[in-house]
């Protein structure tokens, strides 16, 4: 039942794709999706690209799993059972409603949840939250305080985070695309990164410069233990070469 409902919602998204985000299954696993959000214009996140992972329970969308599942979606440290088992930002973001580990709280996933709620509505709620933070129920109290007391500082900090992470992402994706000649493979490789701070480049490189950049070499070394990343290592640095 759950897989049929998820498949129907996927087809609905594909039939009428939104302009502010895209979403779909990871490696054809209907219970694990990845969404890509564009930073809202006229916000400190403008120009940013933010990856969010969604895991669905086998009971979706009807019965709520028990809170003992250790859900990533929570409110002030309290777990609530929901039919979507977790929603988590994979991209670092400076936001009062999103924690440093990517956890996020949305009313629509808790007390406002019902079987009629769709994945599209959840994703649209995330878009709205990026544009309009909820200061009545923040997860990051210090960031919420900064937003209220010094809006200019908050926006400058959020804009700086967004700019820095996008430089790193563009550089990494450029190298992967140069190696694989496949932008989708590059994005997939980036999205599976558990160490996004490995890269410190300030701009994307051309292919020739990428082979000489110490930060790109550092990225290649980091990914040398990754099944796909080992190809980056071999192609950018050459087989058997070190990035010391």
From TrEMBL:
Q: Which residues cross the membrane?
A: none
Residue stretches making up the UBC core domain: 1-167
Q: PROSITE patterns attached here?
A: UBC_2 (PS50127)
Q: Which SMART domains match?
A: UBCc
Q: Which InterPro entries match?
A: UBC, UBQ-conjugating_enzyme/RWD
PANTHER family of this UniProt entry?
A: UBIQUITIN-CONJUGATING ENZYME E2
Q: What is this protein called?
A: UBC core domain-containing protein
């Amino acid at each position: 039942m759950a897989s049929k409902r998820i498949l129907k919602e996927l087809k609905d998204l594909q039939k009428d794709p939104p302009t502010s985000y895209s979403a779909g299954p990871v490696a054809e696993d209907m219970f694990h999706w990845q969404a890509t959000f564009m930073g809202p214009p006229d916000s400190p996140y403008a120009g940013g690209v933010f990856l969010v992972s969604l895991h669905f329970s086998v009971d979706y969308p009807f019965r709520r799993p028990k809170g003992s599942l250790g859900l990533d979606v929570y409110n002030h440290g309290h777990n609530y059972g929901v039919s979507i088992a977790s929603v988590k930002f994979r991209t670092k973001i400076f936001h009062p409603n999103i924690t440093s580990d990517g956890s996020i709280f949305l009313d629509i996933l808790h007390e406002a949840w019902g079987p009629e709620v769709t994945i599209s509505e959840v994703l649209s709620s995330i878009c709205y939250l990026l544009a309009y933070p909820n200061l009545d129920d923040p997860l990051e109290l210090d960031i919420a305080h900064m937003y209220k007391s010094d809006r200019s500082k908050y926006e400058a900090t959020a804009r700086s985070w967004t700019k820095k992470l996008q430089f790193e992402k563009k550089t990494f994706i450029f190298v992967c695309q140069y190696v694989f000649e496949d932008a989708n493979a590059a994005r997939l490789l980036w999205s599976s990164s558990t160490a996004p701070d490995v890269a410190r480049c300030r701009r994307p490189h051309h292919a020739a410069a990428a082979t000489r950049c110490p930060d790109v070499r550092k990225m290649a070394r980091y990914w040398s233990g990754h099944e796909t990343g080992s190809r980056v290592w071999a192609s950018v640095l050459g087989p058997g070469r070190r990035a010391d």
